[in-house]
Structures are given as C-alpha cells and as structure tokens.
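Hi there. Long-time user, first ticket. I'm pasting a complex I've been working with (about 1010 residues overall). I'd like to know whether the download I got is complete or cut off, because the file seemed smaller than I expected. Thanks.
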Amino acid sequence: MSTILIIEQILNGLQLGIMLFLMAAGLTLIFGVMGLINLAHGSLYMVGAFAASTVANLTGSFLAALVAALTAAAFAGALVETLIIRRLYRAPHLDQVLATFALILIFSEGTRLVFGSFPLYLDIPSALAGPITLPGGIAYSKYRLALIVIGLVVALGLWCLIERTRLGTQIRAGENDREMIAALGVDISKLYTIVFALGAALAGLAGALVGAIQSVQVGMGEPVLILAFVVIVIGGIGSIRGAFVGALLVGLTDTLGGVFLPELFALFLEPGAAQRTGSALASMSIYILMGAVLVWRPSGLFGARA
Amino acid sequence: MRIHETAVNTAVLLALLSVPAFAWWTDEPFTITLATRAAVLALAAVGLNILLGIGGLVSFGHAVFFGLGGYAMAILAFHAQNYTELNLGIGVIDGTNSMPVIWLVAIIVSAITACLIGLLSLRTSGVYFIMITLAFGQMFYYFAISWSTYGGEDGVSIYVRNQFPGLNTLDPIQFFLLCFGLLCFTLFVTARVQRSAFGVALNATRQSRARAEAVGLRPVRLQLVAFALSGAITGLAGALFADLNRFVSPSMFSWQLSGELIVLVIIGGVGRLIGPVIGACVFVALEHLLGGLTEYWHIALGAILLGIVLFGRGGVLGLLTGQDGARV
Amino acid sequence: MKRLLIAAAVVAMSTTPAFAQVKVGMITTLSGGGAGLGLDVRDGFMLAIAQSGRDDIEVVIEDDQRKPDIAVQLSDKMIQSERVDVMTGIIWSNLAMAVVPAAVRQNVFYLSPNAGPSALAGKGCHANYFNVAWQNDNLHEAAGAYANSAGHKNSFILAPNYPAGIDALTGYKRFFEGDLAGEVFTKLGQTDYAAEIAQIRASDADSVFFFLPGGMGISFLKQFADSGIDLPVVGPAFSFDQGILQAVGSAALGVVNTSQWNKDIDNPTNAAFVESFEAEYGRLPSLYASQGFDTANLLISALDTASPSDADAFREALRAANFDSTRGDFAFGPNHHPVQNIYAREVIQEGDVFTNKTLGLALENHSDAYAADCMM
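Hi, the file is complete. Here it is re-exported in full:
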C-alpha cells in the first residue's frame, strides 16, 4: 500500500472525526452543564440536514442552506428544551433516556409526515466540487478538505467562547456548581436554553455539511448519534477537549480499521474470507476501542466524574 | 400494603391468562399469539428489572442476552432440522429440538456472558455503565450480522416449533401456557430473591453504595450476581421469543431492542415485581391497536412515553397504587 | 361478462356462499427507513386491483416496519386471524426468510413482489411460493454480463457485508469474465465511502461495480462523483430507481444499471401502466411499483381460472403466468422464479426529472443459478 493512499486515508479519518466532534461537542456540553443524556441529539442533526436541503432547493445557495440548518436546529432545540427537556434535568438518567428516546420517535415520524418517505436532495456547492491536488500529488476532495477546516474553526471558536467570554464563564461555572451560579444572579433557565440551542445548532450544522455528501433521509441521525456517544464516553463525558480527542480517535479507528484489517487478515486467509472477517472486525472496532478505554479508565480519557 | 400488592399481582396475571382463554374459546388464535408475545417480552423485562429495579444499574445492552438465547435456540434447532453436526471446536455434538435442553443452554450461555460483561462493565458506573453495556450490544450485533454460517443479517428460520415432552407446542394455547408457566415461575423466584439476604443487600447497595460497603457488603460481587441472574432470565426469554417466531435475526441484538426492554420496565413501574408484566401487556396492546390505526403510530407511542415520564412517575403501577417505583 | 358467468356458476352449485371472497394479506414496509419501496409496491398492486374492477378480492395491508419479528407476528395474524388465501408484499430478503417458509407450509400461497433470496430459489423452494420480481442474483449477473459487452476488463467491486451483499458480488463474478482490481465489503448502513473511494483511486481498475441499496447508494454516488475519478460505474437498478434518483441528482447521470423493467419498455401494458400510475399518484412509477402491479395482475389472471380453495388448480393457474406483464414476455421457471429479459439502462435527465433510458438487452430469457437445486 502506497504512502499516498495511507495519507489520504488518514485525511479521511480526520474528516470523519471532525464531523463527529461537531455532534459530540453539543452532546457533551449539554451533559456537562445540565447533566442530561440527550438521545434526541441525532434528530437535531436530521433537522439541520432537512432544513438545509429545503432551503438549498428553494434558493440554490449553499450558504443560505447552512444558515437555515443552524437556525432551524437551534430553534428546534430551544423549543424542545423549553417544552420538555427542562423538566428532566433533575430526573434520573433512566427517565432522560426514555423521554429523549420518545422524542426520537416523534421527530422521525413527524419529519416523514412532512417530507414524505423518499430521501431529499442536497448537493455540495459548485465552488467546492471535485478534487484538489495536495503537495505530494495527493488528489483529495475539496469539499472534504473544507469540512476539516470548518470543523477546526468551529472547534477553535467553541474554545474561545468557553474560555474567553462571559457566557463561557457561566457555562463553566454551571458545570461546577449550579446552585451557586443561580445564587449569584445568573438566569439559570435562560443559560440552559442557550446551551441546549448551541448544542443543537452544532448538530444541525454537522447534519447539513454531511448531508451534502450523504443521503438526507429520515433516520440518518441515529447511527451518528451512537458514534457521538462512543466519542464522548471515550473522551470523558462533559469534557470538550475529551470530545475532540475522542472524535479523532474514533474517526481514525473506524476509517483505518476498515482499510487495514482486511489487508491484515489477507496475510493468512484466502481473499474473500479475509475481506469478510476483516470488515466484520472493523465494524466492531470502535466499540472494542471504547470498551478497552473504559476498562482502563472508567471515566474516559479526560473525564472527572461519572 | 403487602395484601394490596399481592392482589394487584394476582389480578394482572389472571388478566393476562384470561385474554387467551377467551380467545381460545372464541377461536381467535392470533390474540393468543399476541398474549404469548406479551408474556415472553414480560419475562425478558423481569430479567432486566432485577438489574434495573433492585440493583439500580441501567443496562442499555440487555438485547445481548435476548439475542444469545435466541441464537442458542436457532443454532441447536438449525442443526437438528438439517441433520448436521455442530462443531464446537472441542468436540462435535448433534443439534436438538427439545425445548428443555435449549432453555438450559440459553440460560447457561447468557449467564456466563453476563458474568464476563459484568466483570468489565461494573468497573464503571452511571452514564458510563449505560454506554459500555451499549457498546457490548453493538459488538454482538455487528458480529451476528457478519456471521454467515447462521444467515448473517438474514437470520435463521426454523420451520417447526421445538418440542416439549407431553405438549403439542404448535397449538397456540399450549405454547402460551408453557410461556405463562415459565413467567409465573420466574416471578415467584424473583420475589423470593428480592426478599432474601442477597436481595436486601443488593437493594442496600443501590440506595447507598458507601453505607453498604461500611457494613461489610461487597457491592461489585452482589451486582455481578444480579447481572448473571438478570442475563440468564432475559436469555431464557430470548429462546422462547425465537420459538414463538420460529425465527431469529441480528435485530434481536439491536440497541433499539435494548431500549424497548427498558421502556417495558418503565411503563409498568421500575423495581416492582409485576411492573414488567404490565409494561409488556400495555406495549403489545399499544403496538397492535395504534399500529392498526395509522402508519404514523410512532408519534402517538412517543407522546405516550413522554407522558409517562413527565407526569406518571412510577409507571402504570405507580398510578394504580399511588406511589413511585424505585428511584434509579 | 366473465364475472356474471362465475356468479351464475356459484348460484348453480349453491353449496358455497355466493361470491366467494378471496382474501389477500399484504405485509410490506410503510414506515421508517425504506418505506418508499413498500409504498411503491402497495400502490402498484392496488392500482392493478382497482383497474380490474373486481370486488371479490379483499386486500388486508399491514406495515412490518422493516422488522423481522413484526413481520412474523403480522404473518401469524394474517393466517390465523384473517385467514388469508394469498400473501404478498415483503420487500426485504431477511423478512421474507422469516415469513415465507412458515407461511407456505400452512397452505398459504405467497407471491413475492420483490425479495428473492437464493435459499427460496434452490433447496428451500416450495410449490406455493412464486417470485414475480427476480432471484436476488439476477440483476447483478446481468451487470456482469453488461460489463463484458462494454469491454471492461478489470473491475473494482463493493457491497455491504451481509448476505445480500455477498450474493451480489457472487452474482457479478458469475458472469464477469475480466479480473478484479479489488473486492471490498463495507459496513451495513455505512454512509461515508471516502476510504473505499481512495482504494478505487489507487487501484488500476477500469470500471466499478457496486451494490449499495437505499441511502448507502445515494451517499456512495455523491461522494464518487465528487472525487473526480473518471471510471464507468455499473450497478443493479436498486440504487437508481425513480424514488431515489432525485436525491442522488446529477451524480448519477450516465451510470449504467441493470433492471428487468423500465418505463420506456415498449408494450401497451407498460405504456398504460406508466400513464395511469402517474395520473393516480402524481409521481413516476419505480421498478418496485411495476413489480407490485405485475404481482396483482398475476393473481387476477389465476383467479380467472381457479379459486385458491382448489390449491392444485390455483397453483397450475399461477404457474401458467397468463397475464400481460409490464416487462413484456414473462414466464416462470421450474422453481417458480421468473425467466425474463434483463436490460441495461442509463440514467438521464428529462427536464427537471432524473430517470432511466433503456440501452439494450443485458441478458435474454435469463433464469437463475439455483433452479437445479430445487426439488419440487
């Protein structure tokens, strides 16, 4: 296997990881600040993709589509938070799992009711279509490269927001002691709505960005949701830094596992069987990674508490 | 209070028994099949309830044991059906279509697997426990999908239901009574376990791990035993479920199924002996009635679940008896 | 007129109640992912029933949610409670394997409008099971045959790692005479194909064959088109049916795919079907809709000569396949699977709508590889 191919696969792993980070960041923020397990986060990803597709088909502008995705997901998030989620903050994890599981059902079938059962169309903007040649002669998709850049910029922005702004201070304070910041006069329920909407917007953005190279359909959020949970558990729940490292680990393991495990098995099995065994193991690989990390560090890599 | 609870328990079981009895009388075999489905799902949820209700451990991967039970049945019956031998690596055995043997295998395999998963998972707690059990579920799911010997994603069909000495298991009412009998027996055992020294100690561990440790209990060992017991019961239910459908597939390992089992326990009332039975009956009835009304019945199901979480703490039993179930 | 005659015959016998109803149970996927396929089959089927004008056929429709255990439960309900004579509707092979073997052993006829797993075509064939669509391998075999005629010598092939995926690659290899530049099994439900596309780019393939049904295929095609790799792509019709082509968009243009049906196949039945389907439902029919339509017409043709209560006569009537198919010629092989032409078609754009144009025959009067194993 050539070096060029290996570098290209590493880029692919990075790109998957960065997109997972957009999902995982919101999930981990919501858990860190409000202590909520949100299974419906994948539905917000779907909302973003559907909004983007609708607006892109109406206006023809990808930028407008991204704005629509952010707005629609943030709005849906704020709405759900105000109506339902805020009653769950003090509830046991079990109730949160059940209630947000119920929200998945409602979101999925509701979307199908409105948009029908067939997948929608969303294409990448023409400016970013096609491959670009990187130093060393690697032909790589412009759009995927853009995804990596956008993801990194968002990660940086999120870091600035949390470390450098007043809102960030409140969020960090909320993670440590919610009674205390309420006593200090911060409007805690408004803060929670904002954090939830922020997480939702990130999920919606990821949905729109990824929707352009995948298929926009009902149920697209759940596989990503499971991956995002794997990411935040590996990274340590509540830790943005953990989510970043976890996302890259999962992205690289999934991509490189799918490529190299079959090659590995081909050394001692006949090709067809090697392909099947290798890809079977590859689809289990991230869960094996997660199990291993938890056995080694029961609160994840950067987790402080369970 | 004890009398009240016993009366509710008896009433629920009698109700579950009366539906198929009535259906048998009026010759509506499908209603018996539905009642059997409810009884088998109830059995699986009774298993989960030991871990969830008494032990306070939210397993999001109980489909592993359900699936193992199902595949234990499918593999043994598959070899019996095709008259082929089953190579275990250490030796070769024949398949079987005898239910008692299949049940025993399902229970033992599930219990051993539960011990192994428990050893690793119980190092974590809270959300991490939920997620690591989910991870094990996904591992088994993807393994089953790529296991081409037994059909991969297509699963395995068994043409004729397995045999139980002295019964005609293909007759819906006889098979129902078999499942119902096992459910009652398991409920009886569970009630005894709940009141035993082990059950009390496990309950104490759920309420305060630190205090339990202070009085000399060993929480992890208690939880491990609960995990194995819970897994074994759910595994048995999996074997029955496979025989009910005469079919298994990797979807028995899916995370949605783990979620549904939790839903069953919560609808009925967490930690209550009869809770899972009520939950399973309500769920099967909803699925059947709402599913017949509209394609979009998932919306209604979601709304009902939300209603239970937000307003009906303690599930149906909580509403009936006016008190919450166990806090988890 | 014919119905009058039958009514007269019934009255003459007077031992059976007037107008013996035929009950059909349809289990198909109407909610969740993949609901589009079930809707098409249902709509095609019901269109044919409506056009026949018969009022002695009662169709009970249930949604399996694409879950095998729900499908089994519904099948029990159809047989035990509704007491149906004929069943149909299942889209997915794994659901068919869960339902069909048990159903046909309870003396119900099953007409498959879509799934055709190899187990039911070979050793597991059954006198009461008829497949009106194709055996699963057929379209892949045709893709292999087309690749030969198009002069491809070195194919990169990929499919998900599950039974239908393995069958797909086996089917392609059975007919393709060139070499393989690579053979990859992807994860079921995978949506990102960057890694596989990089492998294709690095290989010396001159063509790509893929079987990735549903959303997987949409994702792959969009990403492949974006990668700038300029290789001809061949696939079975499943990723290019009318329902999902709009979601793939221009990424699918020019791709050659194999199908037993297309809307431009030239026969009066097909022309009437395409026109009436569009008029009734406001969308173009897909191959799934055509299969549902053909299934219903097969059933109606058999009911014209026999009743399901006389199982042997009804079976003979089905086997005769005496109906006008949207595909033109249609006959059953010895294992009750179709012997039919399979065409190569190309994705084109007509105004705003993406659709397919028939290029020519890929395989003529094609049967399947498992018929010899069927001991019926």
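A couple of notes from our side: Chain A has one domain: 3-218. The two ends of chain A are 42 Å apart (CA to CA).
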